[in-house]
Amino acid sequence: MWQKYWLGANVYVLIKAKGDNFPRNLPQAIDICEKFDKMISTVLFDMDGLLFDTEPLWGVSMLRVAEKHGIPITRERFKDTRGFHIYEVTDFWSVKYPWHGKSAREVAEEILDDIITLSKTQGSILPGVEKALIMLKENGYKIGLASSSPIRMIDALVTHFGIKHYFDCITSADEVELGKPHPGVFLHCAKQLGSGAMECVVLEDSVNGMIAGKAARMKVVVVPDPIHADDPRFSLADKKLASMEQFDMELLGEL
Q1: Which of 143, 167, 211, 213 has the most C-beta neighbours closer than 10 Å?
Q2: Which position among 37, 48, 80, 205 bears the catalytic label?
Q3: What 8-state DSSP symbol labels residue 168?
Q4: 46 among known catalytic residues
Q5: pLDDT tens-digit profile of 18-70?
Q6: Coil, helix or strand for 5?
Q7: List 20, 46, 53, 80, catalytic entry
Q8: Each residue of 138-161: b (16+ CB within 10 Å) or e?
Q9: 44 pairs with which residues across the strands?
Q10: CA-CA-CA-CA dihedral for 155, 161, 164, 169, to nearest 10
């Protein structure tokens, strides 16, 4: 049912409600209109550590390939490139720890081959992810995937794990000049979906991803790994969840 609220001079607004549950007066009707106008219409997902439990596997693949080529990388040195996409990582290594033989690009491609194979055999969809995707589809949200991982890895994994059909747009840091924490990949994905930044909420597991989402002027919900959950920097997020199982329509309505 619809109800008219007159503004004067033959101008009115229409409010739709279930049954007789209409706003009592014009100010309340206008308030509802303003809230509706600010509603989130688009949800952008990160991939590694958010959709799939692949984040720790990156370390395995990088160490394995680095050792093969005599590159002196340790787990402690991963912090220097945290948040970089893989081509930025190997470019950094080539400057910091130069080696003979294959180029930085070729080493990155080897790591990608390894992580894709490893993710398919040892990775899985994280709890609550598919339920959230189904919920968003059923409620008419636009769904995007915006990851720092290369597009060939994204495509391989969303296809392998059977969730590619949920996404209206899939973008990679390959398609923008800079990876996270630069906001480019989120802004690019939103543009492809025809959504403004303020209509979007970002789902992320990392500090750099959170910073990228906030820099894009989007709402950000973080779902950090339990090991990093107490990092005080996550206080910048609009919401923090223990797992994707806590993500629901009520939370979206609060953003």
Answers
A1: 213
A2: 48
A3: S
A4: yes
A5: 444 545 555 665 555 544 445 899 999 999 999 999 988 999 999 999 999 99
A6: strand
A7: 46
A8: eeebbbbbbbbbbeebbbbbbeeb
A9: 144, 202
A10: -60
